[in-house]
Design a protein that fits this description.
4 strands; magnesium; NH(3)-dependent NAD(+) synthetase; lyase; binds adenosine-5'-triphosphate; globular; four-stranded parallel sheet; binds magnesium ion; nucleotide-binding; NAD; 285 residues; binds nicotinic acid adenine dinucleotide; alpha/beta; single chain
């Protein structure tokens, strides 16, 4: 049986971090992974949340170093063989679009694209619903329909990022980190699908520390985390969805004392979501 201690060890979070060391080794990881892939570009969806703001900034710093110049205003492709594609991926109009634009300003990416995922998501949703209805297999639950559609939005965002990566020759970054990974709080093959996750090993408060050190505005650092996937419950906070606060999750990951119900909930959720962390099973497993 997996114990709380084994989960803490698997999540790799340190009780205290040297912020500059963590920034340096994660930029180096991004650079090495990109160079070893033989590709020249990085792709990441930018939501306006702190995770993608922080990783986007690290990605752009990695790209700037690879291009060996410090002036991010130079956009002549001859001088910039490496590029970071920041991708806005709203579903219709995003309520916190201003935050997303502030994030783009903070990152100052080589290229910014915008792909709206509403039409593709709605089209898939409507076709699946009508097929299931024809065979009397469609649920009556408005909640389940909306929740599942939310995961489809995340998968459409993934498809858009891989489409871009395929065309430009790039790697898709993922923002999964230890305070999300522990609860499997991501869409399987949606935002969970990517080529590298440079933030793994950090918890939420450490990501905020790194963002602040990189110069992120305070409102960005303190923005309430949300997956913002459900039309029936827009902007639902991660903490409401999880029934746990990030303070509690972060304390657990750092090995600090937490209430028994926090430990029990985290261990149970970790075990229930193991399928999201493991390779796809075969007859040999
Ligand atoms: N035991 C098992 N073994 C193997 N596979 C299993 C399985 N149980 C389910 N599955 C498969 O997994 C699927 C369910 O997984 P999934 O589709 O991910 O769905 P699920 O885990 O139910 O939902 C994803 C959760 O992550 C949250 N999320 C998503 C995206 C971003 C963020 C964010 O923080 O921004 C948060 C979202 O709000 C929601 O609460 C099932 O449909 C099934 O195909
Ligand atoms: N509207 C969006 N536009 C572009 N990318 C998005 C959008 N929504 C989600 N994503 C992508 O999915 C990832 C997972 O979302 P998640 O909410 O966990 O991260 P975040 O929004 O960056 O930070 P936070 O968890 O604090 O809200 C994001 O980091 C981003 O890469
Ligand atoms: Mg978010």
């Amino acid at each position: 049986m997996t114990s709380a201690q084994q989960i803490i060890e698997a999540m790799k979070v340190q009780p205290t971090i040297n912020i500059e060391f963590e920034i340096r080794r994660r930029i180096d990881f991004i650079k090495n992974t990109l160079v070893n892939s033989g590709l020249k570009n990085l792709v990441l969806g930018i939501s306006g949340g702190i995770d993608s703001s922080t990783l986007g900034k690290l990605a752009q710093l990695a790209i700037n170093e690879l291009n060996e110049f410090s002036d991010p205003d130079i956009s002549d492709i001859e001088h910039c063989p490496y590029q970071f594609f920041a991708v806005r991926l709203p579903y219709a109009t995003q309520a916190d679009e201003r935050d997303a634009q502030n994030s783009i300003t903070f990152i100052n990416p080589s290229v910014t694209l915008e792909i709206n995922v509403k039409d593709s998501t709605d089209s898939l949703f409507n076709q699946v619903e009508s097929q299931l209805a024809e065979y009397s297999q469609l649920t009556d639950s408005h909640f389940l329909k909306d929740f599942t559609k939310g995961n489809t939005k995340a998968r459409m965002r993934m498809a858009a990022q891989y489409h871009i990566a395929g065309l430009v020759g790039g790697l898709v970054l993922g923002t999964d980190h230890s305070a999300e990974n522990i609860t499997g709080f991501f869409t399987k093959w949606g935002d969970g699908a990517c080529d590298l996750i440079p933030l793994f090993g950090l918890n939420k408060r450490q990501i905020k520390q790194i963002a602040a050190h990189l110069g992120a505005p305070i409102a960005m650092v303190n923005k309430t985390p949300t997956a913002d996937l459900e039309c029936l419950d827009p902007g639902k906070t991660d903490e409401t969805a999880l029934g746990l606060t990030y303070e509690q999750i972060d304390d657990f990951l750092e090995g600090k004392p937490v209430d028994d119900f926090v430990t029990d909930k985290l261990v149970n959720t970790y075990l229930k979501t193991q399928h999201k962390r493991r390779p796809i099973p075969t007859i040999y497993d």
